[in-house]
Amino acid sequence: MSNDPSAHCRLLPLNQLAALNLKAAGRTVDPVRLPVFQLMAWGLSNGSGAAVKDLELARQSLFKIGRYFLPMTEVRQLVYDADRVYFPGRTEAAQGKLREATALLNKIGAAGGKSLDQAVTEVVVKIEVLEHSIATGSPQVAKEMRSLGEKVNLMILKGDLVLTGMTFPPGE
Q1: Same domain, 86 and 137
Q2: Which strand (E) or helix (H) includes residue 143?
Q3: Which pLDDT tens digit goes with each residue over 73-118?
Q4: What pTM does this model have?
């Protein structure tokens, strides 16, 4: 996964066309913000307040997708992969997948506020307990894997609740 969650969006025809329009208008394309949002902001700079608010809501939604929902979906896949490789006896591969999931979760937690960090920490603790169970050969591994998978699924399904009150700075 790219470090820039919106990198793939820049290649979409809509953003390519917006970048061309910005250049044609003599504007410099900002490498951080998506061109379509730059074009809207430029076009709305003298526009109505409602349109500017809608633009900000769209930008916030895009960041929630890129900074939370996509990485959490990747965490879910890593947890499922750990489960899939553990039971044929590939414990090291399973632990590697869980370490990758932990690293992504820590990155997600660092990007948000206190409530997001707390929610992510709960999952990280579950992963640590599971890693210990795997290392010791505990018979509880299957139960803990299932519980971890359910927790990650719940965090994705309840993402809007987890992200309540979280906003991304305008410069991002």
Answers
A1: yes
A2: helix 141-157
A3: 999 999 999 999 998 989 999 999 999 999 999 998 887 777 788 8
A4: 0.68
Backbone angles phi, psi at 91, to 5 degrees: -65, -40
One domain, residues 95 and 149? yes
**How many domains is the chain built from?**
2
Q: With beta carbons less than 8 A apart as the criterion, state whether 67 and 5 touch.
A: yes
Residue 5, Cβ density class (10 Å: 0-12 exposed, 13-18 middle, ≥19 buried):
middle
State the residue range of the domain holding 143: 67-162
CA distances from 34 to 10, 19, 20, 54, 160 (A): 6, 9, 12, 16, 23
94, 153: one domain: yes
Q: Any alpha helices (H) in 4-113, and if so which ranges?
A: 7-10, 13-24, 35-44, 49-64, 70-86, 91-111
